[in-house]
Structures are given as structure tokens and as C-alpha cells.
Amino acid sequence: MMELTDYRQEFVRTVQEKAAADSILDQDAFFQVACEMLRDSEAIADYIPIEPGYRYGEGTSRFMAIDGYDQSAFEMDESIVVMACDDDFSMRMGNGAPTIQAKECHRYINAMRRYIISAWEGSFLEQGEESGAAYGFASYIKEHRADITRFRLYFITDRVYTGRDSSIKDPTDFYSTDDDGHRVSLEAHVWDLRHFMESAEAAVPLEHLTVSLGPKGIAAVKAPDSQNSMDTYLLFLSGQTLAGWYKKHGSKLMEANVRSFLSLRGKVNRGIRNTLGSEPERFVAYNNGLTATASKVDVNENGCITSIQDLQLVNGGQTTASIFYSQLKDNIDLSKVVIPVKLVVVREDVARELVPFISRYTNSQNKVAETDFSSNSEYQVKLSQLSQQILTPPLPEATQTHWYYERTRGQYDSEKNRRDTADRRRFEKLNPSKQRIKMIDAPKYLICWDCKPEIASLGSQKCFAKFVSLESKKGKNSVESLNTDFYKQLVCKRIIFDTVYKSIRTTAWYKGAYQANISEYAVSKFSFDLQRSALSFDFDSVWRAQAIDAMTLDCLLKAAEQASEVLNNPSRSTQNVSEWAKKDACWHALQLKPNCLNSGKISSSYEESLHEELPTLDAQNRGTDSTDSTLFETDSEFTEGNNVPDWSLVSADACRSLYIFAHEHHILSPKASVSLAQLISGIPGELNINALNHLVDIAAQSGFPIATLESR
């Protein structure tokens, strides 16, 4: 195991590389690196940074703080994560490992609590800056407060926490001021340097959660075929005990599980709720029970288990949460409820290998799709193999390297750290950390280029699930499409996304928030405008240069500015921007914006490219006149006046001819442009018939022969 001081040096280096690569402050880079580790550890599903971090009343009893949040779990278990970051990372660059005490941790935890209550009660909305991300998140809390039941508060620090876990107490829960007496639970988590190191070295984050069962303990039967690496016990817990654990520890119990709570509305969980209410004494017979893992148990002289260390529920999270929420919502008596439990005590040095298999093979009560465990799928293995076969092109004063595809959590660090010093340096030189593509992030780059930013904005976990669902429909074709060109284009799409993301900060129009959403929408809009202009993108030039040219970046930033206008539009139908970004309506609104390829100084360059790329129908096909009325064989009854009765019958070539004509005569409206693009490229979507017919009328007056709009 790596020493803490060595790990800190590596951690600081990672942060500094991130800061340099993205041209951001060390403090901001620290928060982003930490959040990536939280996501990889499954402590959170995703994160949305608040830039700059919100601070109010620092040094006073009114201190409020928030640096980011994760609301992706709200739909599953009605919980929301709020995060605050230690404020002076850049001031502690020594080689040692500085410490932090519980008192200072509590200061940040209480600051997050004050922010939540201020947002909950609405006072934050009365005094906050409306354009800020902290305001947008506060409005989300206010809007959904009737359904929120739990907040998880994460304090992130690069220092080493010197106290014991028991000295970090969860902040006091609070009640709604509404008449229904709605209660909200708060739980606190501290992620310090040691915690990050242990998380990086283990398959699951270690909370060192010790659960006490009292001096009498609980009777348990030990399996006779126990191995040196693990022992298995069978025991029975009361419903009250299990609900008490969940109330006290919340998600800390289930961070090794493959799922979050699926809500009481699901079929299985609804059945659990019904059994608890009508036949509680039969629950032990009806329910499959729980599977839990631990690193150690204490047993008294009677053979009863008195405490469990590092307890994690790998199967039964649905049962546990359903029992807790049923008691909370329905006031169900749990005194007659008994739950069977299989407890597997796994030695720490083999936990990384065994716990995922225990989790996988015991999850059957609510079906877990294979997509939940897809790192070993043929698709992911093939991408990983391609990444190690393909070298970047030779560049001046640069060595050829790989773009490392990390298909399992911690794969890159594990492969690096198992080597000796010299071999590790060679590995890092051949596989730079900044060229690591994580499995969970790859779908975002592909989805954005496929013009689905509303899916990318769902967050990495849901975007990944959507992507796997789409790919599974292709069957064998999905894997067969993976080749050298595919992987090179994936890398290019990553380069494009990262360049846009980094460059947004340098623009005058950027409002300091929702950088990721703007990037996702910008890439999608750029790709969409290429399609509606019938242009193909030159990925080869990006691959050869390992960068995008200035003209392409100008187009992308134009698209980003348009995306920012749509996302921050005051008249948007959804107040919270990150939620608005998940709506189809948001993407449709951006599609109506002008073509980003026609901006300013790049206009003429793309007009030349337009005519080179669009089928121009040479003399053999169209004669010498681009508007020759004999271009197509026509149906004399197809058009009525200057209107087209059925645009679905118009050929793609005819629509392309109209597009070129309208573009050259500067009469192409955004709405007509979007609809023509759909007809040319076959992109599905509702056509704006009024805009199309209006364009035809204007085009006819300008000399366009409407007879060319023939039926297929």
C-alpha cells in the first residue's frame, strides 16, 4: 500500500496537471479531481460544479457554502447530494500531509446545512444572484421540497482527518414549515486524503462503518465450509434494527451496491410495502433477505455477533430502504418484521476481487441488467484492446503515445502502480494520464456527436445506460463496428469536447456556470449544422494534429454561445438550467438557431466547403444551370401554387437544391433550415411546414423553379 505522503504528492501532481490543462485555479482543479474520484467510487452518481464556489458570511454564524451538487439520485431515492470543498488547497503545497480536526469539518457541514435551509424556505431566492448556479440549485430545492426526504452532505478536503468517525456527527434533521410536518434527514460524509487513497486502492470506498449490536449481540450460524479469505454467517435482523441503521447511516450502508433505491413505486418495492403493512409476520418467509459484506465481526462468549466492521449491503438495498420509507411514510409497526441476512466477512486484501462477484451473483430480487456490469462485455474489451494497439501519429518534438481506455475503475492506476519506478515512468510516458478515456465518459462524446445533448445532460450514469440500451438494439453490429477508425474518431470527439470545454471559460459571454451542459450542446449543435449542411467532418486532420484548427474552434464557440443563450434563456420552461438541459424542448430550441458554420470570418471558408461537399449535380445529372427546371421529372399536380402539400414526398436531392439556392440568396430562415436538414439527412423530427412553404414562396419570387420539388 502506498504511503500517505507519497499518495499526497501524486494527488497534488494530478491536481496541478488538471489546472494547467484546463487553465483553471488549483482550487477548482482540486474540486473537480475529487468529484471524479467520488464518482468513480460510486459515492455519487455525478456532479454539477457551482462556479465559482458559493460562500456567504464566512467567519460568522451565518456562513453558507456549496461548491457542487448531485441531484441524479433524486428520482431513485428522493435524496440529493450537496458538496463543499476545503478552501485553501493551494496554500498547502508542502511534502507533508496536513491535518484537519472535526471542528473545522463541522464548520463546512453546518455551512452546507444553512444553505439547504435557506433554499428550502425560499430566503436564498430573495437575496441570491439569479444568474448563478447556486441560485438555480436553490430554486430546484424549493420546487421539489415536498418530495425530498434526505440530503447527503459531502465535505471534501486534501488534509488528513485526525478524529474518529464517531466524532463526525450528522447535522440535525429539520422539519418543513408546511402544515404536513414533512421531515428531511441530513447525513454528513467527510472525504479526506486518507479516504481518497483507500478508495483508489479498493474496489469500494471504505467508510470504516462499525455497527454495534449491543453486548448481547445477535445469534448467528457460521457456515462450516468457511475459507481463510472469508467467513459466511446466517442471522436474522428485526425490521426496527434495519430501519434504525438506515436512518443513522443512510447511503453509507450501500456504497458497494450496484443500485441506488428504486423508489417505493416499483413493482417489487411496492410488494414489500404491502407485505409490511398487511402481513408483517410473513415478511421473513416472503422476502429473499439481504447479503452484506464486512471486514471483521466481533463475537461474544455465546457466539453472538456484537459488532460488524465495514458493513456494506451488496444486495438488499431495496428491502432496507423500502422498510425505512414505509415506516416513515405509513407509520408501519416493524416490531413483527424479521429479515434474513447472509453476512460474508471478507479479508481486506481480497475484497477488491470478491465483493463485486458477491454483489453480482446475489442481485436477483430486482433484476439487474447486464449493462450494470458491462465492463467485461465484448464491446468494452474490444475498445480496451484497440486503445493499446493504436499509437498517436508522430508529432514534432513528441513521442507517440496511446489514448488509454479504462474499462474498469482504477485500471489505469493499478496497472501503473504495480510497476517499479523506471517501468512506471515508461508506462506514464506511453499512456499519459491526460489521455485516459474512462468507460463511463466515452458515451458522452459519442452521444453528443450524434446530436443527443439532452441524453448527455442526464449525467454520466444515465447517459451510459441510454447508450448501452441503444447499442444493444444493434446486436452483433455494435461490436463489429469497432475498428481502428472508430477508436480514432472516439479520440477526436474527446479532443473536440475537451477543447470546447476549456475554451468556453475564455469567452466574454460565459456566465460562469453550466460549462458541461454548454459543451454538450455546443458539440451537438456543431455536428447538427454539419449534417444540415450535408458536410462531412474531417476527423483525419484532427487525429493527425491531435488538436482542432482555429476555424473549427470558432464554429464550436459560436455554437457554444448559442447553447448558452438557450440554456440561460429567462423564459425557459424549467427554471433549473441543469434540468432544462435534459428536456427535448431545450435541444429543439437550439436547433432553431442560425447555422454556426456561417459565423463572421469563417463564413466564406465554409461557403466554399459547402459547395465542395454538397452534391452539385454536374452536367450529366442537372445540365449547366443550377436552377434548370428540367432538373427532375416533375409531377404537375404535386405543388399547389407555391405550397407543397406533402413534404415527406420531396426527394433529398430536391431539398438540397432548395437549400443551396436559399443559402446563396440569403433567404434561409433558421426554422426552414432545420426542417430542410431533416429532409436531406433523414434526421427524425417534426417539420415546420409553414416555414418551408414560406421559404418556397420567397424562393419562387427570387427565381427558384418550384417544379423541381417533385415527388419521390
Can you tell me about this structure?
There is one protein chain. The protein has 712 residues and is an alpha/beta fold. The protein is built from 30 helices and 18 strands. Strands 9, 10, 11, 12, 13, 14, 15 and 16 form an eight-stranded mixed sheet that branches. It has a six-stranded mixed sheet with strand order 1-2-3-5-8-7, sandwiched between helices. Helix 21 packs across helix 23 (550-567) and helix 28 packs antiparallel against helix 29. It is globular. It starts with a helix and ends in an 11-residue tail after the last helix. Residues 203-207, 255-268, 363-373 and 599-640 have low confidence and may be disordered.
Poorly predicted residue ranges: 203-207, 255-268, 363-373, 599-640
**Number of helices in the DSSP assignment:** 30
Mean pLDDT: 79
Structural classification: alpha/beta
List keywords for this structure.
712 residues, alpha/beta, eight-stranded mixed sheet, six-stranded mixed sheet, 30 helices
Strand-helix topology:
Elements: H1 4-22, H2 26-40, E1 48-56, E2 64-70, H3 74-77, E3 79-85, E4 99-100, H4 102-121, H5 123-127, H6 133-143, E5 150-156, E6 160-161, E7 174-175, E8 183-191, H7 193-201, E9 210-212, E10 218-222, E11 230-238, H8 239-249, H9 267-278, H10 283-286, E12 290-294, E13 296-299, E14 304-309, E15 312-315, H11 317-330, E16 338-346, H12 348-362, H13 378-389, E17 404-406, H14 411-417, H15 421-430, E18 436-438, H16 442-449, H17 453-456, H18 460-472, H19 476-480, H20 484-504, H21 515-532, H22 539-545, H23 550-567, H24 577-580, H25 584-591, H26 603-613, H27 619-622, H28 652-664, H29 670-681, H30 689-701
Parallel strand pairs: 3-5, 4-6, 5-8, 12-16, 17-18
Antiparallel strand pairs: 1-2, 2-3, 7-8, 9-14, 10-11, 10-14, 11-16, 12-15, 13-14
